[in-house]
Amino acid sequence: MNWIPVLATGASATLLCGLWWRAMRGRLLDTPGDRSLHTHPTPTGGGVGIVTALQAGTLLAVPEPRDTALALLAPALLLCLTGLLDDLRGLGVWLRLALQGACAAWVVFMLVPAPASALVLALAGLWVVGFTNAFNFMDGIDGFAATQAAFAGLAGALLLDDAGGRADTVLLLALTGAGAAGFLAWNWPPARLFMGDAGSLPLGFLIAALALLSTAEGALPGWCWLILLAPFLCDTGITLLLRAAARKPLLRAHREHAYQRLAVRGHRPVTLGLLALDVVWLLPLAWLAAHRPSLAPLAAVSAVLPLCVVAGVVAWRHREKGVERA
To answer: What is the value of pTM for the model shown?
Structure first.
């Protein structure tokens, strides 16, 4: 894989996000609310810089034909603009879900190989919408979502390249990871800029779509993606199950995720902990799943089960406590 466009995309994301930060100071601010854990108004919408860098990097680096890239770029741009509008004025939850569903249907129609049953197509679309929202839910503390996106994109690209996956899919994954990594220059705790829905929605969508594509192509097993994305899948899954059991609204903003509860004493230790978990534990397990298919289910259980237990224990220990802002 040619790393020059990947590095250039990361640098471009840093530059463009810096320009956005400079332009939005005092204008587009994320003020502390029901879901947030920050204490001061912070410029948001930095996802515009990420997506712009991704779009430029993809159009310049991905060779013709760009069918796959264009099938992803258009809905990612739509979600970025939708997210920016949501950051600016707020949109109804059902309108957001409808737009996400349309983007998921488009990408499934364009990327899932035929023939595929209606059930497979429906599950693929549900995966894309579900992870897009899970990623959005997990964008709640400084550097957390961007770190996971950078890891998933870059690690997924390395594993897929090693497995002989399609060059354009490998490059798209690497560019996505690089864009998120470039944004971290502004979002690392203490954050000076938030990505907002303008970043979390398209990043979650791209990761979900590229994971689906690499699995559908048979190059990288789904077990690998379950492992690479386990922190977000487990925390979101356990939190939603517990809220459903308590008959709490599932779509209302809250601060009950495990990572939010753990971050009450500071954002940086939680984000550093995620990075260490990704690199030291999950990456070797994903490599094992890719190279030893017979051990892939065991590797996935080794990744998912401890994280689900941790999320459950954290929720239990804090069941009667509120979550204060850090």
So the answer is: 0.95
